[in-house]
Automatic annotation (TrEMBL):
SUPFAM superfamilies: P-loop containing nucleoside triphosphate hydrolases. Residues 2-234 form the ABC transporter domain. GO terms for cellular component: plasma membrane. GO terms for molecular function: ATP binding; ATP hydrolysis activity. This is ATP-binding cassette domain-containing protein. InterPro entries: AAA+_ATPase, ABC_AA/LPS_Transport, ABC_transporter-like_ATP-bd, BCA_ABC_TP_C, P-loop_NTPase. Keywords: ATP-binding, Nucleotide-binding, Transport. It comes from the Bacteria. PANTHER family: CONSERVED COMPONENT OF ABC TRANSPORTER FOR NATURAL AMINO ACIDS-RELATED.
């Protein structure tokens, strides 16, 4: 289980996160949503060890991992994807996934086999010999996701992994995220594709201006007046029932 407690972060005079609290259970999907600039990526960067918080703590299964470097976070099982995929040196698609497989493989043969299986699951096998820089950006996000999955994380941080994907690819990723949950992973997903949030989220955390303004089921947060105001700029007093970002009877 991932526990984020009282996390705060400023960039110079800009207070980006204030007193952020939430937990992500194993075998569950937490969707982190909120308007642009709310602080979602900053929070995920803190959990993944890319940024140090100014205050607060991050615990993984009870162990304090606050401010550990990203390589340490990865070694402990916190894996993330990036909104803009990084270029992993001069590696091709296959190599970039195989490198990540070493975290849990007993040698290069096993790592290669795991990488192949993951690429096939993501329908990326045909791209295996291509340099990461030569495939479409949306596909690099899929490779990024496959790379994250192959390391068998305890916590998977997905940063807008669906952006720019075709409907078929969105369905594929939704299935893969679901599989990941079945494998016991605590998934924290920043996602603007509401089809994915509706299909997947067990729990939704809404950030606005660096604060958690609502959390619960998608149905619950969609009816929260403060959430409506954050998304639509409508004063809470003028609306009491809303569909933001989308109502979700299934999760309601
Ligand atoms: N390294 C940085 N230095 C200065 N300001 C930053 C830095 N990173 C983020 N910010 C600012 O912090 C605020 C929150 O940014 P962040 O990217 O975390 O928001 P977000 O909710 O992920 O937004 P989006 O949905 O647009 O990606 C923004 O005002 C952003 O400009």
């Amino acid at each position: 289980m991932l526990t984020v407690a009282n996390v705060a972060k400023s960039f110079g005079g800009l207070h980006v996160l204030h007193d952020v609290n939430f937990t992500a259970e194993s075998a569950s999907i937490t969707a982190l949503i909120g308007p642009n600039g709310a602080g979602k990526s900053t929070l995920v960067n803190i959990i993944g060890g890319v940024l140090r918080p100014d205050g607060g703590t991050v615990h993984l299964d009870g162990e304090d991992v606050t401010g550990v470097p990203s390589a340490t976070a990865f070694a402990k099982g916190i894996t993330r994807t990036f909104q803009i995929s990084g270029n992993v040196g001069a590696l091709n698609v296959f190599e970039s996934v195989a490198v990540a497989a070493y975290r849990q493989a007993r040698g290069y043969r096993e790592a290669n086999a795991l990488a192949r299986a993951e690429l096939e699951r993501f329908e990326l096998w045909e791209y295996r010999d291509q340099q990461l820089g030569s495939i479409p950006t949306a596909l690099t996000r899929l490779v990024d996701f496959a790379r994250a999955m192959v390391s068998r994380p305890k916590v998977l941080l997905l940063d807008e992994v669906m952006a720019g994907l075709t409907p078929h690819e969105v369905d594929l990723v939704i299935r893969q995220v679901g599989t990941c949950r079945e494998q016991g992973v605590a998934i924290v997903m920043i996602e603007h594709v509401m089809q994915a949030v509706e299909a997947l989220a067990d729990h939704v955390v809404v950030l606005n201006q660096g604060q958690v303004i609502a959390s619960g089921s998608l149905g619950d947060v969609s009816r929260n007046a403060e959430v409506v105001e954050a998304y639509l700029g409508t004063p809470p007093s003028e609306r009491d029932e809303v569909r933001v970002p989308a109502d979700n009877p299934a999760k309601g």
